[in-house]
Amino acid sequence: MRTIMAVLLLAALLAAPVRPAAATGGILLESRPLAVPAELAAAGATGFRIRYVSTSPKGRRIEVTGAVFLPSGTAPPGGRRVVSWAHGTTGVSDRCSPSRDRELGGYGYPGYLAGFVRRGYAVAATDYEGLGTPGVHPYLIAESQARSVVDAVRAARELSPDMSRAWLTVGHSQGGHAAMAAGEIAAGYGKGLDFRGTVALAPVTDNRPYVDQLSRLRPVDHGYYMAILAGLSTQHPGLRLADYLGPRARREYPRIHTTCMTDLTNRLTKLNLPGTEFTPATGAATAKLRGWLGDNAVPRARSAAPMLVAQGLNDVLVSPAQTAKAAEHAQALGTATKLITYPGTDHFQILTSSAPDVLRWIDARLRR
């Protein structure tokens, strides 16, 4: 019955005239019990897979899926504080949505999220627009990912009324990009909630420097470049693949919509296509690409609350220098920003290396 009512509600929303985005974002359409990974089960978490309303950057009402993990026991005075989790790159295909994956996208995420649950925080974990729902996933499109992160909090609060309005966002890699962007819209799009801060772990911030390296990409990066093009195509429907991929790469490109990133990367690594297959065809195409990436670079504006940035100095996927530059820019924009670097730590080890610092920082903001 709940599913039928949810479908009717969505139909009514889609037929209604467009109102300010936050007016309908976060409406919970469906929730179902979710078998939680062992690490979260050991922390006493109860899991739900959710489907909720959000708004695309073009103002269209959309559906987004995700997961919610609730701690055991009685909620504290004022309700459970919420951590809105933004996951790292899994792929562009619907098959890659973390809420459908027993490992929540991999990379040790279940154990990481268990740390929040043990401290009594509820976790709202969006899949992002287009991962598990109709349409192409707007990979690294800042506004899209930010709205999914904010609306996941609203949907989680509908699921469990004992949740507080107080929340913050934590994101890794692609999710660091999403978390930064969410912090910047929290005061407007997130109106009605009580935003307390952003944690960005090895965040993707600005891919413009990447453009000058396209002809020298390692095979392991080819799939990520294809995902970037897929994301940009949602914002720029006129994007011509022939301007950005050679004929052999274009033959492989459709796999981005049917294969998750690990498998796609393994295939492209074996193919070892030459750099010319990933070089823009003209100077004009290069300039367009750089501009489009710049439009989605973060930070873009002052955040409504402080930000913690954590970066491993042995990270070969996200440049430590680029992260430092982004943190400096956030500070210049007026966001109280703290950058902590971790020697000997790579892109994935940052989760465990930074966990004690992150938890202390979160506690200081959510437990007041």
Question: Which terms would index this structure?
Answer:
368 residues; 9-stranded mixed β-sheet; 38% helix; disordered N terminus
List the secondary-structure elements in sequence, H or E. Answer: HEHEEEHEHEHEHHHHHEHEH
Number of strands: 9
- The overall pLDDT, averaged over residues, is 92
* Low confidence ranges: 1-23
Instruction: Briefly note the structural class of the backbone.
Output: alpha/beta
Radius of gyration: 20 Å
Helical percent range? 25-40%
What is the number of helical segments per DSSP (H or I, 4+ residues)? 12
- N- and C-termini, Cα separation: 40 Å
Strand content: 15-25%
Characterize the biggest β-sheet: 9 strands, mixed
Strand order of the largest sheet: 1-2-3-5-4-6-7-8-9
Shape: globular
